[in-house]
Amino acid sequence: MTSSLRIWRRMLMPDLVRVHRYRSLPEQGPKVLFFSGGSALNKISRVFKEYTHHSIHLVTPFDSGGSSARLRAEFDIPAVGDLRSRLMALADETVMGQPEVYALFTHRLDQQAEAAELKAQLQRLVAGEHPLIACIPHPMKALIQTQLAVTQAHIHDDFDLRGASIGNLIMAGGYLNNQQQLDPIVFLFSRLIKALGEVKTTLDASLHLGVELNNGDIVLGQHNITAKETLALPSPIKRMWLNKGLRRTQPTNCAIASDRKEAIETADLICFPPGSFYSSLLANLMPQGVGQAIGQNPNPKVYLPNLGVDPEQQGLSLMACVERLIAVIREDVVGDWTDNAAVFSALDYLLLDSTYDYGAIDVERLKELNVQIIKTALITTKVDKYDERLVSQALLSLV
């Protein structure tokens, strides 16, 4: 018979002895799970892999902007751009890695080239004649060519290849070549670049984000929410859901796969990191089963809030973000969270830089929520940017 217990220890911040031990043996490092979306965590991930090779990154597949949007529209697939960029951040950059594969997967086709030239470049890649692929040894070269050939065969003649990521094209071909599933190609991708960590979509489904604003407006599509490709929203976000397509409101949801559930439940530390508050962080918590799995994990959960201005946090103070984060997690639990003896915390720690002004913080309300504040040095030179190494050391001190 087994049982779950919470064991408390005296915590130092940062715990440099603990951190040094992890860096000395990263292959035996802790399993730290990040709920993240876009590129905000990539720089931290590149440093974090020096301390542990067992981090888990659950990435949102709901991006509907940039070059990912073209592939989604062409093939009705989940967004692959954020998956690719996180895998690249975790790639082995030592001599044991595959620099030729890394160079190929991070390359983008010329943004200014004519359509005919771009098609010719893609053909040279498929044929294995392009300099970026010619230097890759077999059998990796043949595997990559196969995925690219599938993409080439399926895209329409008028498909816009300008600025297209080769890595995204490879992943799209792998998706189409594996019964419209992302997991097999992500696994292959990880092996090819020797990823020092695990990256998965939270949900292997081609869905989009929908939000209702305080003024009653409905907005569909991640690209319309982030204010990166469009104007900022005219009103704060009231609620969010997963949606079928971009043409009309069709709320839906799917349950996470058993391996995602197990990863969340067994992580040594769960981190809610910086990034677009709704479209990156909360979007990862929307699928059925995520909140329940978080509640089943007895280990620490920590929220590292954004610095600077996040357009999606319009109208939200730091305290409001904390309360909304906890509420979204608890919504997924059947019955009353406080009356469910099998449920642990939704959030334990609020990790803050010791000098940055995050605005008003209601300490008494945090006590009611059983959330403790941890303040430590997380910023060095740039006022609105976290120092990747200091953040990594702080998080690892919690494990």
UniProtKB/TrEMBL annotation:
Q: Which Gene3D superfamilies match?
A: CofD-like domains (3.40.50.10680)
Q: Which GO terms describe its molecular function?
A: LPPG:FO 2-phospho-L-lactate transferase activity
**Top-level taxon in the UniProt lineage:** Bacteria
Looking at the UniProt entry, the stretches that span the membrane are: none
Protein name per the record: GAK system CofD-like protein
